[in-house]
Description:
The protein has 383 residues and is an alpha+beta fold.
Amino acid sequence: xxxxxxxxxxxxxxxxxxxxxxxxxxxxxxxxxxxxxxxxxxxxxxxxxxxxxxxxxxxxxxxxxxxxxxxxxxxxxxxxxxxxxxxxxxxxxxxxxxxxxxxxxxxxxxxxxxxxxxxxxxxxxxxxxxxxxxxxxxxxxxxxxxxxxxxxxxxxxxxxxxxxxxxxxxxxxxxxxxxxxxxxxxxxxxxxxxxxxxxxxxxxxxxxxxxxxxxxxxxxxxxxxxxxxxxxxxxxxxxxxxxxxxxxxxxxxxxxxxxxxxxxxxxxxxxxxxxxxxxxxxxxxxxxxxxxxxxxxxxxxxxxxxxxxxxxxxxxxxxxxxxxxxxxxxxxxxxxxxxxxxxxxxxxxxxxxxxxxxxxxxxxxxxxxxxxxxxxxxxxxxx
Length: 383
């Protein structure tokens, strides 16, 4: 006994379910030409927002935390005072450095006077050249001591300045991770984390594209049909998870230099203005990225597409009412309709409604309809 194809079995089962014998005559189906329209494709990605700048705030000097000067979770401005570390030990070190500088300057003054006296005596041959050279070296040593003392004073000035921890840029601050009175380490890789600050405006959106999508964009760029996001600020639109429309416009900002060997994806980032601060680092969203140049596309509803053993098929009807199965290559969804990249043309009569009544090679009674841009069907003019 010859085996029936899956499509034939499915068609026969459907007809039986409706109480219709497979031996009956051709059944009516609704057919229409695909929509042919000039479109631009937009590819969609899921990702999350990230701050352009994120800083872990740590101290540059060690000491006891004296005071906190911000409201946790608030927006801080660049240079705003955040923490104060007890400055008294550093102020004392600065006083000691100042005293050391004064002593070095005194010794330099004395060395200069002794050198001048020795040079006068040398002119009268009352002193040896060797002693003059010693006085000259003593002066240079005293001068370098002054320079070293100045540098030490500058270091103590910085230490005193570093006891005041300030915001590096405008952004939203987290909570204080250390309470007043605790000892904090500073100035090393083991420095105590005090808080974090993230920038808010603008904000980045990070997502990953597959290897196939990356190759598609690369080929479009080489063919001159769509510029790479590495060289062009291609437009993007994003919506949040509780939104239905892509109303927030941004632009591509960054494409990574390699694909991840673990996931075979490449990381991309878009940037958005965020003056109201609604877009928050960590929030997920859905992004649309310009995916093609403008071209003539063939569009049909997904309901007219049949999946059979890993293939996608569309049923078409010829002038005699005979059904034919066309393998098709599917593209993206555009305004609710499926882009057909290959397999049918705009002149084909595609079965849009009643696909379950048709089988390849069989007969149907085609009822001409017009496919509307929203995917609905309307009687064809003159029918």
